[in-house]
C-alpha cells in the first residue's frame, strides 16, 4: 500500500464545510461532484498535498448527525503539518479559527490545538 488516500469527515452541510476548510484553513477544493443519489463527492486538501485529502461526508442519519464534531470522542483526531508554523498560526487566527491554547514548543515540534467549525479537535504542528 502506497499511502492513505482520503479521510472521511462527517459534516452537517457541504457548502458551509467547503467554505470553512477553504477560507479559514486555506485548503483547496479538489472535487465537488454530484452523485446519482442526490449527494455529493466533496474533497478538500491543503495546497500541495499529493496524497491525503478530506472527504466531506454529509450526515444523513440521526447517528451520523450525533457524531458531527465528535468523531474521535473529544481527542485530537486530525493533524495538520506545516513548514511555517508562525505564519499559518497567525493567518488562521485572523481567519477566525478557534484555538484552545497558546502555541507550545515541544521536543517533537511546535504545536497548537484548534477546533474546526464543528468542534473537531486538530493539531497544527511543525515537526522538529
TrEMBL record:
Signal peptide: none annotated. One of its GO terms (molecular function) is dioxygenase activity. InterPro entries: Glyas_Bleomycin-R_OHBP_Dase (IPR029068), Glyas_Fos-R_dOase_dom (IPR004360), VOC_core (IPR037523). Keywords: Dioxygenase, Oxidoreductase. SUPFAM superfamilies: Glyoxalase/Bleomycin resistance protein/Dihydroxybiphenyl dioxygenase (SSF54593). It comes from the Bacteria. Transmembrane segments: none annotated. Residues 1-127 form the VOC domain. PROSITE patterns: VOC. This is Catechol 2,3-dioxygenase.
Amino acid at each position: 500500500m502506497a499511502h492513505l488516500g482520503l479521510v472521511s469527515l462527517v459534516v452537517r452541510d457541504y457548502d458551509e464545510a467547503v467554505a470553512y476548510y477553504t477560507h479559514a484553513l486555506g485548503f483547496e477544493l479538489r472535487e465537488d461532484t454530484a452523485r446519482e443519489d442526490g449527494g455529493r463527492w466533496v474533497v478538500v486538501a491543503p495546497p500541495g498535498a499529493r496524497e491525503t485529502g478530506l472527504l466531506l461526508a454529509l450526515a444523513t442519519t440521526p447517528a451520523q448527525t450525533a457524531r458531527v464534531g465528535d468523531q474521535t470522542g473529544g481527542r485530537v483526531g486530525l493533524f495538520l503539518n506545516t513548514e511555517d508554523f508562525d505564519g499559518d498560526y497567525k493567518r488562521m487566527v485572523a481567519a477566525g479559527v478557534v484555538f484552545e491554547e497558546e502555541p507550545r514548543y515541544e521536543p517533537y515540534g511546535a504545536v497548537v490545538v484548534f477546533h474546526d467549525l464543528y468542534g473537531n479537535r486538530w493539531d497544527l504542528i511543525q515537526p522538529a
